[in-house]
Specification:
The chain contains 27 helices and three strands. It is mostly helical. It has a three-stranded antiparallel sheet with strand order 1-3-2. The chain is globular and about 95 Å long. The N terminus and C terminus are likely disordered.
């Protein structure tokens, strides 16, 4: 107000009620608040000034108690949050039981996507699975009065905890983030009636995973036999994704039991009737998931014991489902490519293996499959007479695994038979472990053909004796036979003079004048079109959407007829239609 000067400690500017260039004595907050109230009263009734307390005052004073509204200082809340720690056992059980809601929705909506979501959570749960966690989850899921109590006892026996009582209440720590107690009680009443089979099958799969990771293969095989019989007796369509996973682990258990394949006494041989029965049942029930999984398991089973003819008969007498999961399609193409490569049908094998590598998942968990498929594809390309691209060996995730094959490709590309034999001897164990050793032994003729082709490009005329020396062949007759076969197969463009004992090369024309570039371009376009068709088939559309569109179209036509009829009778004008009307 004019004529009056406000009371202050000086004429200098004030910030938060304190001058910047002077120290302020620390006084009680009550006295400072009284002085501020007097100053505001002196300045006038129309103007009220509220000055917040300084930071130094807050720091020096003791922490204030909680306000009437219940506000608590942030420091205390942070400490309280740090003190709250979730028990890992309780969290693991909660994660397991959280999948039960997905299984319930899969049954209610008859949608397998929710079951697949529950199965995908196994990868995050398997590292935390222990007998105590599984036993507690089973005990909390199955009430003692449930009709499925016998199933729960069987699951507890498989885990090694048969004495755990059923109906154990959940721990108090789990009730922090759970639903209200009234809902929990209602849920308990529902569980007392019966537990859906999908839940106990999901728990059984978790037990299979635990037994496999703990290397209890014999116990796992026995439990898997019980599980497959139970799945076969239930006959529920909502169990299709779960049954496929159960058969998968049953096959893995049998592969690890002695005697190991390829022995004819291996347990995988006795597993074939079970898988064939499951395949027949899945085809009759139109169970796509189980059908795709069992076909892949049977092909793997036959290949482990080198029964190639039986695997070929299975492929010819069965039809792999078109709507199968991408992972199963990639596995099927890989095994089919291996079968065709053993049968000397390299072109078909190359197509299947190329599709398998393209469909292989890009995640790190599927790196092993991508590496094995790429190794077999490289060998097939060499058997076809092609040289793989160098960029394949420069992929960071493939570089170390493909190093022996890189040395092999170098020996084949140059046509050096001595380096080829040295590479095979040095990496014999690696090739045998990858299952490509028998195919690599066939490359000896390709190395010789490549060497002859390099000589035909380098020399216009070369004697058979020089060919024999350079390729380390036994005699000139064998060199003559190999050169004649290479000319007949179209590997080289040359003529053979048997009387004088030399090979004369022809002039090489322009490769772009041949059909080879067009064929390569055609293969790439065909692969792109196939990928486009598969992407269109994989798109999901709302069910019965076409019926809704037809209903809407029929209603629109009826409205148009009524409108046209009213216009003819003179009940409607152009103004009633909201604009210009030219006619129906």
């Amino acid at each position: 107000m004019p004529g009056k000067t406000p009371h202050s400690n000086g004429n200098e500017p004030v910030e938060n009620g304190i001058r910047n260039n002077q120290d302020v004595d620390m006084t009680d907050e009550k006295s400072s608040l009284k002085n501020k109230g007097k100053k505001g009263a002196k300045e006038g009734e129309d103007m009220t000034v509220v000055v917040p307390p300084s930071k130094t005052t807050k720091q020096s004073s003791q922490p204030p108690p909680a306000d009437a509204d219940g506000d608590v200082a942030m420091d205390e809340s942070d400490k309280a949050e740090e003190e709250v720690k979730v028990d890992p056992v309780t969290q693991a059980i909660a994660d397991i039981k959280s999948n039960f809601a997905l299984l319930d929705r899969a049954i209610a909506l008859f949608d397998a996507r929710f079951s697949l979501r529950a199965l995908r959570s196994i990868s995050s749960l398997r590292k935390r699975l222990t007998p105590d966690i599984l036993a507690q989850a089973i005990a909390e899921t199955f009430p003692p009065t449930s009709p499925s109590a016998t199933v729960a006892k069987q699951l507890l026996t498989a885990v090694g905890k048969p004495d755990v009582p059923l109906g154990r209440p959940s721990s108090t720590e789990m009730e922090v983030d759970s639903e209200p107690k009234t809902q929990t009680k209602n849920g308990a009443k529902k569980e007392n009636k019966d537990v859906i089979p999908e839940i106990d099958i999901f728990l059984s799969i978790l037990i299979q995973v635990y037994l496999f990771d703990s290397k209890q293969f014999q116990l796992g095989a026995e439990f898997s036999k019980y599980l497959s019989d139970r799945i076969h007796s239930l006959n529920r369509r909502t169990l299709d994704p779960l049954s496929a996973k159960a058969y998968f682990y049953q096959s893995l258990f049998c592969e690890q039991l002695a005697p190991l394949p390829p022995s004819p006494q291996s347990p995988i041989v006795s597993l074939r009737p079970i898988l064939l029965t499951a395949l027949r049942t899945a085809v009759l029930r139109k169970d796509i998931d189980t059908q795709a999984s069992v076909i892949v398991l049977l092909l793997r089973n036959y290949l482990l014991t080198s029964h190639i003819s039986q695997a070929d008969l299975l492929v010819s007498h069965t039809q792999f489902p078109e709507n199968a999961a991408n992972n199963q399609v990639a596995r099927f193409l890989y095994y089919l490519g291996r079968i065709r490569a053993i049968q000397l049908r390299y072109t078909e094998a190359h197509e299947h293996l190329t599709a398998a590598t393209r469909k292989a998942p890009a995640s790190a968990c599927a790196l092993g499959f991508a590496q094995n498929a790429t190794k077999l594809l490289l060998v097939v390309e060499l058997l076809m007479g092609d040289i793989p691209e160098r960029a394949t060996f420069r992929i960071p995730s493939m570089e170390q695994a493909l190093h022996p094959y890189f040395l092999l490709v170098q020996a084949v590309r140059v046509g050096n038979l001595e380096d080829f034999e040295t590479t095979i001897a040095a990496h014999d164990e690696t090739f045998r472990r990858d299952g490509t050793y028998s195919l690599i032994l066939r490359l000896r003729q390709n190395v010789i053909k490549t060497g002859i082709r390099m000589m035909s490009l380098s020399y216009s005329r070369i004697s058979l004796r020089d060919i024999c020396i350079r390729l380390h062949l036994g005699s000139e007759e064998s060199a003559e036979y190999i050169v004649a076969k290479a000319i007949r197969d179209g590997v080289i463009e040359a003529t053979l003079d048997r009387e004088r004992g030399f090979m004369k090369s022809k002039e090489v024309g322009d490769v772009y004048a041949t059909r080879e570039p067009g064929e390569a371009f055609h293969d790439r376009i065909r692969a792109c079109l196939a990928l486009h068709d598969e992407s269109v088939k994989a798109m999901r559309f709302p069910m019965n959407q076409h019926r809704l569109e037809l209903k809407n179209a029929q209603e629109a036509r009826e409205r148009e007829r009524e409108m046209a009829k009213e216009i003819q009778e003179g009940d409607l004008d152009e103004d009633d239609l909201g604009g210009d009307f030219d006619g129906m």
